[in-house]
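Give me the 3D structure for Mitochondrial inner membrane protease subunit.
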Amino acid sequence: MLRHVLGKTFRFLGYTVQYGCIAHCAFEYLGGIVVCSGPSMEPTIQNSDVVFSENLSRHFYCIRKGDIVIVKSPNDPKSNICKRVIGLEGDKVCTSNPSDFLKSHSYVPKGHVWLEGDNLRNSTDSRCYGPVPYGLIRGRICLKIWPLNDFGFLRASPNGHRFLDD
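Predicted structure for Mitochondrial inner membrane protease subunit (166 residues):
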């Protein structure tokens, strides 16, 4: 009797560990569901929108300008932020705010990206904390899931003029 109960218990624990490992790998390497909060990505992503973030792009260095990414916050490593990639390493980016009369530019250093929110007037981003190391990128948002009337791929940046090609 005790042997039977112990056998079932160990079998249950074994399955729990196996499926836990599979779930961990799926969320770490494939992707997951993310609830976004805050106004920094409006109008593209509203507060409380639910999106799907895929993680394969960061592992294969396939992040491109215009992608929206989930990143460990440079200011608070316990939280994640959602921003748009404006510049990759070596790109020239505008580092000033839209309201600044004189525009300043800089180059993104090797191994870093320049991130900005779509809501430039209400976003804490690379204009505040500088270029972000590529290693802090957790995933790339590719699909909006909720609300259902907005289901689908994300729209282009309303600040496309901030992408410099020279």
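Residues 33-163 form a domain with the Umud Fragment, subunit A fold (CATH 2.10.109.10). Let me know if you want a second pass.
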